[in-house]
What does this fold into?
Amino acid sequence: MTLRDLVLVRLGVAVNLVVGQIVAALLLPVYLDAVGTILIAALVGPRAAIVTGLTSQVLAAVLSGNFSWLPFGIIQVIIAVYAWVAARAGAFRSLYTAIPAGFLLGAIAGGTAAPIAYFVFGGATAGGVTAVTTVLRGIGVPLPVAVGVSSIGTDLLDKSIAFAMVALILRTLPSHLAARFPALAR
Amino acid sequence: MIGYVAGDSPLHRAHPYTPLAWAGALLLVAFAVSTPAAIGSVVLAAVATAAVGRVVPSVMRPALLLALPTWGLLLVLHGVLGPDPRVALGPLSLSQPGLARALVLGGRITAILFAFLTVLATVSPPRLVEAMTARGVPFGRIYLLVSTLTLVPRMRSRAALILEAQQCRGLRLGGSPPARLRALGPLVLPLVLGALAEVDEQVLALDARGVTSGARRTPLAPPPDRAGERALRWVLGLLVVAAYAAKFAGHGL
It folds into this structure.
């Protein structure tokens, strides 16, 4: 990784952590903790994006003290690789392509997170997701199905918004800045 | 939520890798055991670690703040809504297997929280950097972990400034979820675009400090790594291997 990639990874990690906090302050029912990972995948490539995602997961644990969420680091790797493929395919050129691409990532990421949430945490993860799981269990849905539905449902919304956000960032990037990223697929 | 708490306990004086290895071993063993009694022992070991580091008061509050909501959710999901047979606990009728599962899962998370919060409270970040540098860890990795921690508060204050500026221009933060979602763009876009504009300046600054030279850096005061501590870390590694070997051989606790 070049020095420039390293600085961009640092920026991506900070974006992941800070945007997540802005979203929490706005009381939105999503996390948006992978905007930096998706942005770095589009600007630099998959390797830097994977490092961004994994470092974000570790530093989020350090900053919150909640190290039990480290197993979800694998989701960041999936997001990094998928976002890079989506960027190469031109998914960030408009909101009409970015949102469906994010929706598909939501299904993949949610489908991967659900077994982790079920086997490692018994379905008790983040507040909003677990509230949905509890309601579904209360109406008689089996626990594995309840965890899967709540996890995928949240991720569909979360990743669609994250992809839309990155598409907007790339679209508003001034041309003199965009020219500094040869790998950029706009 | 918790930072380094200055002190002179054995954990404070130890090589930074030793408390980290201990916490890592507790995490792995917590996932290797699956009975309430065994996980209870792991929780006790984690709390004992905090006591050795003399940081129980500092660690207890954040650990409970993080663990109690999870315990509550686990007890509802598994204890109240779990399968039969049921057991009476005061006025409540709880699922017996669900309760056992909730105890294991909740105990696992509590042990991990106590172990790593103790590491955060007893391992001084500058000492950890010195230890990593002495071990020849590439500058890039150290830079990413340590420097990002300083960047996050700066970006947070910049986000607060952008928020105030946009509110002055009429941005409303309340209302329905779609209205709040629309407020996200005017907050996030200037933050990210501003940070991207500074990238080249930071690259030049790092380059001027010889970061790309590839030469091994010399730590000023590397923490001593005694033979006993190195041996302890090896023993911890072997214990973890033994725990998983027993688990997969069907003799796990």
